[in-house]
Amino acid sequence: MNNKNTQNEQLERFMRKANLHKPSPELKERITAEAKKTWNQTSPELSWQIPVRRLIVSAAAAVFVIWLTNCSSDYAVARWRSGGPPVAHKQPLDLDALPELSFSPIARHFVSSSRKPSITEASTLRSYAERMLLILDEAQQNGASKPPTPPEGRSYLLPTQSGHDSYS
Amino acid sequence: MNRSWDNILDKILPDNMLQAALARNDPAAVELIWDRYAGDLLAYLQAVLCSRHDAEDVLQTVFVRIIRKRHRLAKARRLDAYVYRIARNEAFRLISRRKKGRTIETVNESWLIVPEGSNKSNDMAEQLQAALANLPQPQREVIVMKIYRQKTFLEISRLLGLSQNTVASRYRYGTEKLRIFLENLTL
Questions:
Q1: Which of A17, A35, A42 is opposite residue B63, by nearest beta carbon?
Q2: Which chain A residues have a beta carbon less than 8 Å from that of B67?
Q3: Where, residue-wise, is CATH 1.10.1740 in chain B?
Q4: What span, in angstroms and rounded, lies between the C-alpha atoms of A164 and A166?
Q5: Coil, strand, or helix at residue A20?
């Protein structure tokens, strides 16, 4: 260890025999003149200007990225459209096959009419009205065949008339 | 108090005065910066670039950059580390430009001087220069700052933003390599 320290000291002593160039007066004159010129040309940067400048640069970068994305998107869509309009395959509507239509005919009709395109022709409108009337008649008949609702406080299970099979 | 801390305190006080001059936007700060940093920076740049003329050119760029960033320097927590960082960045910018072939390679020139002036001393300077140039740049800059600018490991570590252990190990590895390079010379 001591040997190594001695060697290091010897090396340092040897190296210190040489020296580096020091800045010359001409160099000082040249550089300070240039620095003073720069000092006069540039205004001191105010502390609040730094974050504002960063914000402006960030906003400009964001706008540029959005513009670039829009351009690339427009280009891609235009290329896609140039091949012709997309053709959607429309399956025929089979209302009877729809599982959710296990309701009364009137409900089924409303559902199917809402899924169909709007009626514009007079003949179609007339036939639609006739069908509606027919369905309403059917519904009325079905309603008439049903037993009347029992009066309040009474049950269908209890006989309504006093007879041989009554408990009274 | 430890000697190295004394050195650091001695150098912090002028930095405070310098920062005050920069904050006042006083052009006299240019002279203060020169007196405070020119010698150290030129030595550091010569160590990094192994060229006196390149070091002088880069020193001018560093000063211009310091003046442009004077407002930031006035508020810097460690002015000396900031200044060294600027010098380091500028030196590496020149090196990268050179690697890309944008500038002409400089001719070999002496950046070490031996005061005696005899033929023997010139040979010694050349060999020392060649030995230093063969070292990796991180080791060379530590050795030059330690030997030729009498900086302590603590000061070097603070200036270069490294740990003291890193600086010490770079110095140790560097000196070992130098010893091998210089074994033909009489130590």
A1: A35
A2: 35, 38-39, 42
A3: 1-111
A4: 5
A5: strand
Task: Kindly report, as residue ranges, where domains of CATH 1.10.10.10 are found in chain B.
Answer: 114-187
Nearest chain A residue to B71 by CA distance is A45
Please give the CATH architecture assigned to the domain spanning B114-187: Orthogonal Bundle (1.10)
- Report residues of chain B scoring pLDDT below 70: 1-13, 102-108, 116-121, 184-187
Indicate the fold that domain B1-111 takes in CATH.
Rna Polymerase Sigma Factor; Chain: A (1.10.1740)
pLDDT at res. B23: 83
Return averaged pLDDT per consecutive 10 residues of chain A, 168 residues in all.
75 83 90 89 70 92 95 80 54 54 64 61 85 90 66 50 45
Hey, is A153 helix, strand or coil?
A: coil
Write down the ipTM of this complex: 0.80
Looking at residue A162, its pLDDT comes to 46
CB nearest to B71's CB, from A19, A23, A44: A44
Helix, strand, coil percent content, chain A, rounded in steps of 5: 60, 0, 40
Which chain A residues are within 8 Å of B111, Cβ to Cβ?
20-21
Count of C-beta atoms within a 10 Å radius of residue B80: 20
**Helix/strand/coil for B113:** strand
- Residue from B36, B90, B173, B175 whose CB has the most chain A CBs within 10 Å, to mutate: B175
